[in-house]
UniProtKB/TrEMBL annotation:
It comes from Sulfitobacter faviae. It comes from the Bacteria. The lineage of its organism: Bacteria, Pseudomonadati, Pseudomonadota, Alphaproteobacteria, Rhodobacterales. Its main location: membrane. The keyword Repeat does not apply. The chain crosses the membrane at residues 20-39, 81-102, 109-130, 150-169. Belongs to the DoxX family. It is a multi-pass membrane protein. Pfam families: DoxX. This is DoxX family membrane protein.
Length: 177
């Protein structure tokens, strides 16, 4: 055991100095696990044509304002400017924020905005769509809201705290300034 402890301490010291590893892996995992999820979710909200971002699909309103949309008989024309702005902003966010994180540009800000996005998304799922919250400290690790979204937020908070890491546009821009 006495031989093991110095080896352990040496390895732990090297890992502690590898400050680049955590944010780099966090961005990689975000890209591997969540990038396509958010991009596909954004695509479902686009209306027809090249300017479909400005004419959201009916599915966009159903996803973001499920109860309000049902109350107006699924007629998006019956919704106001506020609803349109929220849907367009949410759709743009689903494209822009994940891409900023993956390329490492304005990473801390984009990750913080994504935390807010995930919170709003989770609340919409809970109160608008009636999804089950799930529970922590149970034997099931896959509750759609509480377990999964907690891990997403943790991953994003690593980026908020640590930044993008060395392989990023943030680092490239910092070197020039």
């Amino acid at each position: 055991m006495t031989r093991f402890l110095p080896l352990y301490r040496t390895a732990a010291d090297r890992l502690a100095r590898a400050d680049w590893l955590l944010p780099t892996l966090a961005r990689f995992l975000f890209a591997a696990v969540l990038l396509v999820y958010f991009l596909n979710a954004g695509l479902t909200k686009l209306g027809p044509g090249p300017l479909g971002i400005f004419t959201p699909s009916t599915g966009a309103y159903a996803q973001i304002f499920p109860r309000v949309f049902e109350a107006v008989g699924y007629d998006s024309d019956a919704l106001g400017l506020f609803h349109w702005l929220v849907v367009v902003a949410g759709t743009v966010a689903e494209f822009i924020l994940p891409l900023l994180i993956v390329i490492g540009l304005l990473t801390r800000l984009a990750a913080l905005a994504m935390v807010g996005f995930v919170v709003v998304q989770s609340l919409t799922d809970l109160y608008g769509h009636g999804s089950a919250l799930g529970a922590w400290f149970d034997r099931f690790p896959d509750a759609h809201i509480l377990d999964q979204r907690a891990l997403w937020v943790f991953l994003l908070l690593v980026l908020v705290i640590k930044g993008a890491g060395p392989l990023s546009l943030d680092r490239l821009m910092a070197g020039r300034g």
